[in-house]
Amino acid sequence: MAFLPPITTFAAALLLFLHTPLATSSPLNLTGDSLSPYEVLQGYNFPVGLLPQGVLKYDLDESTGRFHAYLEGSCSFSLEGSYQLKYKSTISGIISNNRLKNLSGISVKVLFLWLNIVEVVRDEDELEFSVGIASASFPIDNFYECPQCGCGLECVDSKGKVSKLRNKSSFSSI
Fold it and tell me: Which Gene3D superfamilies does the annotation name (predicted)?
């Protein structure tokens, strides 16, 4: 079975001021409440587009990497008309440099089934998303923008411009 989403799922689009990932070999010093959840992602070498726009708050235990991100409510959208993603109001997991594991709160529709995304691993300029039984890899530049709940990355701005996600992926079964 092939897995088909960019996510965000934990999937892809938010900050207008953050369009490039932070290339660091180790996490930022994340103490204090001044960093946004998107900046925390970048501190662990991930792009901001793994989370949808509108994360209200987060908590992070730096000693274990255990985190929770909180949205106002559940969030769903389609990307490129074929990838359906759902975020629960609480997303959790364990974050470390180049790896998100034990994820909960993010799912992708594959054929007729909703599958939970359980891990995201960065390998150079690729992100590999795993649902346990299958995985899919996508170029990291697909995740430089955060998706918006309801419309994903194909949202019309005030000038009538529609942004589009470039879809380049490779699939593998585990």
Answer: At5g01610-like (2.30.240.10)
Task: Name every residue whose Cβ is closer than 8 Å to that of residue 41 and which is 6 or more positions away in sequence.
Answer: 47, 48, 50, 51, 95
Residue from 130, 4, 131, 135 nearest 78 by CA = 4
Count the Cβ atoms, other than its own, within 10 Å of residue 99: 18
**Cα–Cα nearest to 100, from 66, 141, 57, 71:** 66
pLDDT digits (tens, 9 = 90+) for 37-63: 999 999 999 999 999 999 999 999 999
DSSP state of 6: -
The pLDDT mean for the chain works out to: 76
Which amino acid, residue 123? D
97-132 pLDDT, tens digit each: 999 999 999 999 888 889 999 999 999 999 999 998
> Of 2.30.240, 1.10.260, 3.40.1350, 3.90.1010, which CATH number belongs to 37-173?
2.30.240
Please tell me what DSSP assigns to residue 39.
H
